[in-house]
Amino acid sequence: NVTRREDYREPDWRVPEIALDFDLDPAATRVRTTLWVERNGTHDRPLRLDGDGLTALNVKVDGAEATGWHMDGPNLVVPLAGSAHTIETEVEIAPERNTQLQGLYASSGMLCTQCEAEGFRRITFFPDRPDVLSRYKVKLTADKTRFPVLLANGDPIAQGDLEGGRHWAEWHDPFLKPSYLFALVAGDLVANRGSFTTMSGRDVQLGIWVRAPDLAKTDHALAALKLSMAWDEKVYGREYDLDVFNIVAVDDFNFGAMENKGLNVFNSRYILADPDTATDYDYDAIAAVVAHEYFHNWSGNRVTCRDWFQLSLKEGFTVFRDQSFSADQGSAAVKRIEDVRGLRASQFPEDSGPLAHPVRPDEYIEISNFYTATIYNKGAEVIRMMATILGPDKFRAATDLYFDRFDGTAATCEDFVQCMEQAGGMDLTQFRRWYSQAGTPRVSATLAQEGGRARLSLRQLVPPTPGQPVKEPMVLPLKLKLFGGFTGRPMCDEQLILLKEDAQELVFENLSETPVLSINRGFSAPIVIETNRTAKDLAFLSAHDDDPFARYEAMQQLMLDTLVTSVTNGSADHQPVIDAVRNTLTDSALDRAFVAEAVLLPSDSFIGDQMALVEPEAIFRAREALRQDLGTALEGEWRAAYEGSLANRFEYSPSAKGARRLKTVSLGYIAASGAADADELAFEQFSRADNMTDRQGGLTTLVNGASPLREEALEEFYKRYQGNGLVLDKWFQAQALSAREDTAEMVERLSAHRDFTLSNPNRARSLIGAFSVNQRAFHHVSGRGYRFVADQLIALDKLNPQTAAKLIPPLGRWKRFDAGRAAKMRSELERIVASPGLSKDMFEQASKSLD
Ligand code: ZN
């Protein structure tokens, strides 16, 4: 049951048209489907229609009851004599019993769909693969009181009332699309409506659909949608193509959102926002996800994927597009820092662990398991590198060529790279290794000075990954610059060099002072870089580099070096970090948001990622000791920054966001200093806040500590937001992420809380997902964290395999831990693999994690 990329074959049958007729009911929905099929080429193979849990009630060929068909496992096989036929099928499904949240399911009283990757086959029999493109006509019939709104892809055509309190609506989508982009929604919904006029003058009606009480929380998403539509016209020349664009928010959703043609379906956490319930992080994420799904209309829908191995063709490219969009809305430097932080937190560990896979994988058991940080975020870095290598004008010419050449088709990563080569006028043969080789390249950069000359020696190494023991050198675009160690002046313009060999050397002549190396500026390549820069060099760059990312990076490296030394030796000199942090914190020319990012210590798990053997307690202690020293030594500066960041009234703007971020970061350091008034300060921030960012900042600071105000804040927060699921998720998450010693125990208790449920993915992730990335708590030496997570995942798998399987990776990191922990982690993985009725999603993740 392994699917291999090399086995790709064109579909035997095309389905140029499909008509779907839904008689909707939560307990029993009837689906009548008509397919117009055409034989693709000359062969005598029957028509095979994928199904998943479906029973054919009726099969007709060319209008007559068919008899020759049979089931092959879950699939329907219909032998056909001619080259073009009409096939009709009928099935009955029960959306209210669909706990997997794939296919047609019920969420808070409405009916909605999720088809990517292979959910359409849970709705009707169909060749459920992305290279079968069809024109869809959809008719929906339902009870008018329970489901007054009936939505599907494309444009609305007609609607009407029926007797017995029922009504119907018909939607046609003129664009060819694969089945994974099909969607319908039925429910008691209201819309925040808007409109957008495209660059060619088409008027588009926009609607953000939610339940009535949530209507007031949709303005931000609607505004983000309009900004996205304008941005894609301006930056990529891409225009919207239907008369309507609808977005629906649903409470139960396996991931972020889905780009169904003309009818995006979203996890409500990426739509709903107001200052009282959403943090700045939420506001930013909403804009980014709205943009992401909107951008898929071209990078995903107009040009789709030939097969699921090409997933990064649409996801990597679309993430790159949404990152660029967000960068244009505020501080590009801060956005880049956040994206790199995210890549290091999720993709680097994946790339160095048992689930490492290339951006274009070679095989899978369950495709849902490949919606990963590698496909999405490393994929985005691969596109970004091509954009860097080509430069903006050629890159734009290349994307124009790509959209033009492949519009209306199902394309491959190779097609994309060929457009880059052609429009860029360059050979990307070696660059293609980014698609085929897994693993994060490691580069060592050594700068040696001899008089007025400096020699930079670069070496690259791509580590072995499962199934790929030996690697070829990659093309690494490295932006670099030298600064005078004495004057701080740039000694050359920024250069872009392409490291292509295992080893390369660069010589700089006529240097008038000792140079300091700034390399991989802007994180131009997604690699790990080791340099021979001293603590002094790093401190110097953290103050003088003219690339904000490089400044941040120098500070992070300084902190990391200090922390790793501290873990290894039991102590380290904290003074260089203290001085560098003071320097940044008191530099009033710097953007507050940048300062907040720069002064934050690397996370426990990122520190762990630097070490061959992760020692959770020692890492925690080293980090706490540095935090405490920073807090104490700079207490006056933290207080000044805190007070300087107090705003009068909530406002969502880059500068107000920056101020709030720095405020809570400063609060954390004041608390770390052990100051007597720290708890009161946090509680005051918590209770006086007029926005969720400050309130959550106060709460999480208290939740890490032991003050009696902790319980008071938790209780007050809970009471205030009872009934608001998205905010209660924050309440669970804050406790699961707590730095307290007894977190594992508390999380176990919280799993019995009356508001905890595994059937809502957001809630499951807010407790189980958050806890399992809390390095100290999850890796409690007793193994109780492992046992707890395994118990929960075994239970969750019975309801929702996709969401359960996504939570396996923290258990798979056992190789990096001491023998005692590793054995305990393995035995939980073994218990998972042995559990009866295990899904293939979980089987793939858990069994690969044991290898
Ligand atoms: Zn996407």
From TrEMBL:
<dbReference type="InterPro" id="IPR042097">
    <property type="entry name" value="Aminopeptidase_N-like_N_sf"/>
</dbReference>
<dbReference type="Pfam" id="PF01433">
    <property type="entry name" value="Peptidase_M1"/>
</dbReference>
<keyword id="KW-0378">Hydrolase</keyword>
<keyword id="KW-0645">Protease</keyword>
<dbReference type="GO" id="GO:0008237">
    <property type="term" value="F:metallopeptidase activity"/>
</dbReference>
<keyword id="KW-0479">Metal-binding</keyword>
<dbReference type="InterPro" id="IPR038438">
    <property type="entry name" value="PepN_Ig-like_sf"/>
</dbReference>
<feature type="domain" description="Peptidase M1 alanyl aminopeptidase Ig-like fold">
    <location>
        <begin position="439"/>
        <end position="531"/>
    </location>
</feature>
<keyword id="KW-0862">Zinc</keyword>
<dbReference type="InterPro" id="IPR027268">
    <property type="entry name" value="Peptidase_M4/M1_CTD_sf"/>
</dbReference>
<feature type="domain" description="Peptidase M1 alanyl aminopeptidase C-terminal">
    <location>
        <begin position="536"/>
        <end position="850"/>
    </location>
</feature>
<dbReference type="Pfam" id="PF17432">
    <property type="entry name" value="DUF3458_C"/>
</dbReference>
<dbReference type="GO" id="GO:0016285">
    <property type="term" value="F:alanyl aminopeptidase activity"/>
</dbReference>
<keyword id="KW-0482">Metalloprotease</keyword>
<dbReference type="InterPro" id="IPR024601">
    <property type="entry name" value="Peptidase_M1_pepN_C"/>
</dbReference>
<dbReference type="InterPro" id="IPR001930">
    <property type="entry name" value="Peptidase_M1"/>
</dbReference>
<feature type="domain" description="Peptidase M1 membrane alanine aminopeptidase">
    <location>
        <begin position="225"/>
        <end position="434"/>
    </location>
</feature>
<keyword id="KW-0031">Aminopeptidase</keyword>
<dbReference type="InterPro" id="IPR012779">
    <property type="entry name" value="Peptidase_M1_pepN"/>
</dbReference>
<dbReference type="InterPro" id="IPR014782">
    <property type="entry name" value="Peptidase_M1_dom"/>
</dbReference>
<dbReference type="GO" id="GO:0006508">
    <property type="term" value="P:proteolysis"/>
</dbReference>
<dbReference type="InterPro" id="IPR045357">
    <property type="entry name" value="Aminopeptidase_N-like_N"/>
</dbReference>
<dbReference type="InterPro" id="IPR035414">
    <property type="entry name" value="Peptidase_M1_pepN_Ig-like"/>
</dbReference>
<dbReference type="InterPro" id="IPR037144">
    <property type="entry name" value="Peptidase_M1_pepN_C_sf"/>
</dbReference>
<dbReference type="GO" id="GO:0008270">
    <property type="term" value="F:zinc ion binding"/>
</dbReference>
<protein>
    <recommendedName>
        <fullName>Aminopeptidase N</fullName>
        <ecNumber>3.4.11.2</ecNumber>
    </recommendedName>
</protein>
<comment type="similarity">
    <text>Belongs to the peptidase M1 family.</text>
</comment>
<dbReference type="Pfam" id="PF17900">
    <property type="entry name" value="Peptidase_M1_N"/>
</dbReference>
<feature type="domain" description="Aminopeptidase N-like N-terminal">
    <location>
        <begin position="85"/>
        <end position="181"/>
    </location>
</feature>
<dbReference type="Pfam" id="PF11940">
    <property type="entry name" value="DUF3458"/>
</dbReference>
